[in-house]
Design a protein that fits this description.
The protein folds into two domains: about 5-60; about 65-100. Strands 1, 4, 5 and 6 form a four-stranded antiparallel beta sheet that branches. Strands 2-3 form a two-stranded antiparallel ribbon. The chain has two helices and six strands; from the N terminus they run ββββαββα. It starts with a strand and ends in a 32-residue tail after the last helix. The protein is elongated. With about 130 residues, the protein is of the alpha+beta class.
Length: about 130
C-alpha cells in the first residue's frame, strides 16, 4: 500500500515537534511547512485547527514517487534492450532468407564451440506409467 503524504503549515506562534514523511523528528517553527504522512498530518490538523493548516493535498510520498520514477526508467531500459535484440534477430533471419548466411543447427561462438540449449530450472516432468 502506498503511503500518502500531506504538507502542513504552522500558522500559529508556537513550535511543534513532529515527524516528517521520512520519519525524522523535527521542530515545525511558526510559518514553516513540512511534508508529513497523511494520517499524522490529519491528526495534527484536527487536534490543533487554529495552529496547523493543510498547505497541500494528500499525494504520493517523495520516496514512493522516486521509486516509481526509477521503476519507469528501468522498464524503458529493458524495453530498449528487447527492441535491440528483436532487431538483431530480424536482421539475422532476413540475411538467412536472402542467402547471405548459411543456416546452421547451432550458432558458433568465438571459441568455435556450438551453443547448447540451457536447461530450464524447476522440477522435471512426471514420468508416465
Amino acid at each position: 500500500m502506498e503511503e500518502k503524504t500531506m504538507i502542513v503549515t504552522n500558522k500559529g506562534k508556537r513550535s511543534w515537534p513532529v515527524k516528517n514523511a521520512a520519519g525524522e523528528d523535527i521542530t515545525l517553527q511558526p510559518t514553516d511547512s513540512v511534508e508529513m504522512t497523511e494520517i499524522a498530518a490529519l491528526r495534527l490538523i484536527n487536534g490543533y485547527p487554529q495552529d496547523i493548516a493543510p498547505a497541500g493535498p494528500a499525494t504520493m510520498s517523495s520516496a514512493t514517487l522516486a521509486r516509481e520514477e526509477q521503476s519507469l526508467r528501468d522498464r524503458i531500459t529493458n524495453v530498449e534492450k528487447r527492441e535491440k535484440a528483436v532487431k538483431e534477430r530480424e536482421d539475422t533471419v532476413e540475411a538467412k532468407e536472402l542467402g547471405l548466411v548459411a543456416p546452421s543447427l547451432g550458432e558458433k561462438k568465438n571459441d568455435d564451440t556450438l551453443e547448447t540449449p540451457v536447461k530450464k530450472p524447476g522440477r522435471p516432468p512426471r514420468a508416465e506409467k
